[in-house]
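Tutorial, part two.
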Amino acid sequence: MTLGRDQLSTVFWIAISILVCANFWQDVGSFVSPGPGFFPFWSAVALGGLALTNGATRLLKKKEAPAEQRVSIKWGKVIFVVASLLIYSLLLSTFGYLITTFALMLLLFAVTERPRVWSWLGSALLATFLSYVVFYLWLNVQLPAGKFAFG
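Running the prediction step on this input gives:
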């Protein structure tokens, strides 16, 4: 019996889920007093559940998608996004969270081919502002200020 790509990916993600759950099950704690393994354990449970759902869906759906409905991967964009994230991580401590995140979001929204520059700017500004509010103001996460020391 040979496994297709979908079945192999399902088995792979279920195996990863089981390994993570086995590694963190002793440190889970409870919902009231979570331990250090709480987030990894429950994330792995969710990952395993999603993998099982995907595997069951693919198993029940036997019909192959027509060629015109298949998604082709645009490797140029994938490489651009990965390179952008690498450059983001390198520039984060120099320019700070706000400037670097805004620039990254602007680039990523531009890659998605939105029709207007104003929508790129607005979306990048909104994403940066909301992430700043959530992480810095709400969760009190210390974000890199950079050499410009605002944010």
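The helical segments are 5-24, 38-60, 75-95, 97-111, 117-138. In part three we will examine how such features are distributed along the chain.
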